[in-house]
Each structure stands twice: as structure tokens, then as C-alpha cells.
């Protein structure tokens, strides 16, 4: 039977079957939305899931994980993110040996504790910041 809503004035003595078939496209036996990729009643693709052409339940995959109510970025372009908490000033660095992105102290140019530009608001008229000369056109105090 094709899933559809019962038709008023038709479907005599068949309303229950028609309605149950329709509801089983979206709901499990407890009345909750079917969230698996395959519908357990129809054994076909779940029509509740969002796609590029229709709204629906969002499935978190690839770089998104956790739950739909509390999603988390667990990867970056298909590569795992280390679960270690970063320190202030850390940057995300690729670890080929660990095959994941990891937080690491910044080195070389750039802000933070690794050198480079760190403070441009109070320097003199020709203060050097990590190889870059900043011209201060007045007193910032």
C-alpha cells in the first residue's frame, strides 16, 4: 500500500490501515520520529532525513559529531581533531605521525607567545615587532 493520508468520503473500512501506513513513514512503534537511515517498517531510505533538496532531520557525519541538539566539530576536512584542550595562544597544527589536528604553541611569525606581532597600541614611532616595523603616529596613552 502506498503511503498517503486517508481520503474523506473514500477508504471505507480502511482508514486505520491507510493512516498507519502513512504514519509509519515517519514514526516508530513508540510514536517517536524514525532517525535511522533505513525505515524499519518500509525497509527503504528514511524520508525524514534532510537532503540538499528537502528539510528534515539533520544527520551529523564527517566533521560533525555529538548530537543534533549539541553538535560538535570532531574533524576538519575529514581529518580528526585532537580532543586535548588548547592553551591560550595555541594554533591548530597537523600531526602526520598522529594523523590528526592538534593544538600546539605558536612558533615563528604571528600573534601569541611564539613571536611576531603581539602589541601595536603603545609602541614608539619606529618599534620593531618580530621583523615588522610598525609606525605609531601618536601617543596611545
Can you describe what's shown?
It is a single chain. The protein has one helix at 15-23; strands at residues 64-66, 71-73, 75-76, 79-80, 90-95, 100-105, 127-129, 132-134. It is rod-shaped, with a radius of gyration of 29 Å. The protein has 3 domains: 1-53, no CATH class; 64-105, no CATH class; 108-141, no CATH class. The longest helix is centred in the N-terminal third of the chain and has 9 residues, at 15-23. Helices cover 6% and strands 20% of the residues. The chain is mainly beta and 141 residues long. The chain contains 1 helix and 8 strands.
What's the pLDDT, averaged over the residues? 74
First-residue to last-residue Cα separation: 79 Å
Treating each run of at least 4 consecutive H or I residues as one helix, how many helices? 1
Assign an overall shape. Answer: rod-shaped
How are the elements arranged and paired?
Elements: H1 15-23, E1 64-66, E2 71-73, E3 75-76, E4 79-80, E5 90-95, E6 100-105, E7 127-129, E8 132-134
Antiparallel strand pairs: 1-2, 3-4, 5-6, 7-8
Summarize the structure.
The protein is mainly beta. The protein has one helix and eight strands, in the order H-E-E-E-E-E-E-E-E.
Task: Throw out a few tags for this protein.
two-stranded antiparallel sheet, 3 domains, 6% helix, 141 residues, rod-shaped, mainly beta, 8 strands
Amino acid at each position: 500500500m502506498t503511503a498517503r493520508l486517508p481520503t474523506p468520503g473514500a477508504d471505507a473500512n480502511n482508514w486505520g490501515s491507510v493512516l498507519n501506513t502513512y504514519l509509519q513513514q515517519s514514526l516508530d512503534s513508540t510514536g517517536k520520529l524514525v532517525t535511522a537511515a533505513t525505515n524499519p517498517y518500509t525497509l527503504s531510505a528514511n524520508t525524514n532525513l534532510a537532503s540538499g533538496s528537502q528539510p528534515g532531520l539533520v544527520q551529523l557525519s564527517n566533521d560533525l559529531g555529538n548530537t543534533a541538539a549539541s553538535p560538535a566539530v570532531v574533524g576538519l576536512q575529514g581529518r580528526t581533531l585532537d580532543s586535548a584542550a588548547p592553551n591560550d595562544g595555541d594554533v591548530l597544527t597537523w600531526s602526520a605521525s598522529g594523523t590528526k589536528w592538534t593544538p600546539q604553541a605558536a612558533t615563528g611569525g604571528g600573534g601569541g607567545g611564539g613571536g611576531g606581532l603581539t602589541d601595536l597600541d603603545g609602541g614608539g614611532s619606529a618599534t620593531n615587532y618580530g621583523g615588522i616595523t610598525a609606525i605609531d603616529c601618536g601617543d596611545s596613552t
